[in-house]
Amino acid sequence: MLEYIALGILLFAAITIFYGIILIHDIPYEIAKKRNHPQQDALHIAGWVSLFTLHVLWPFLWIWATLYREDRGWGFNKDANIQPLIPNQENNAQRIITPQEYDVLCERLNRVEKALAEQSNEQTTSRPVK
Asked: Which sequence ranges are marked TM in the entry (predicted)?
């Protein structure tokens, strides 16, 4: 009777270890799936390949899966809030202006320069002479 109990415990331990190893090797894939990783299928296949390479690949798969986050990408930018400058109509710095808009801007600039020149002249004339 004890032999059958020992055999049952042995089979239970072997099955638990077998499925435990499979679950451990799916951790990088689960991380990738949670983070919506663009290469999650490759991570899943590489996890199975890692079973046959004596688990050498597994730490690299874990790093590969955790590097990517959907909100910031791969995270190599110093400032994640910096967006690439894409020319479009909403971005005034990249918009081509018409000749009429150019004339209006030149006129405004001339008025500002004239006002600044008058202001600097007033400051130099209003200083008391020693």
From this structure: 6-24, 45-65
